[in-house]
Amino acid sequence: MTPDLLLAFVLFAFATAGTPGPNNMMLLASGANFGFRRTILHILGISAGLGVMVVAMGWGLSGVFRTLPVLHEVLKWVGAAYMLWLAWKIATTTGINEKAAGGRPMTFLQAAGFQWLNPKAWAMAVGAATTYTPEGSGSETVLLLAGTFMLVGAPCSAAWAGFGQVMRRYLDRPAVLRAFNVTMAALLVASLYPLFVDHRAGSVPASREMATDLPLLPLVRSHG
Fold it and tell me: For the segment 22-33, what is each residue's pLDDT rounded down to a tens digit?
């Protein structure tokens, strides 16, 4: 991988990991409800999960979805249902202490596993593996992309959780906390909008849409 291509990928990783989406909405809510320290494993799980997805895509999993598009369709709707359940859990959290209803922040494994149900994470991983992997690249290039994604994404995730931590001081009143959590839940649900647009629109050119958050794995062209 050339230095110019690596720099372009760093910018891609920063833009996709730092912008609003399911992960960052949940980190913001977790930082506000549980604090930054208790959200660290959630942050690390997201980073690790995305890294593993980039490796899987780079090593050929995207081809499986092109061959069996129904498999991706099933994963997409299972992920949507799970995100709706998470939105409900966020909306019904009633306290910012250790005994808050709804319980506890995501664990490392839960956050890593959630990436496989997150439409934006799929788009990020496929975009990384197909756009920034030159023809003839070996496994070391895929691992470099995954490692770079993890190194760039973790600080972005930490920033969202940190912002949530800062907001804790303003959420000491139950009514304010409830309004915040309902807003975060609504934004998480809104982040599913591209999934439903994609479902109605049908096939669209993958090279253009991968710049957005639409999960279009069956349409992605592999470079290796």
Answer: 899 899 989 988
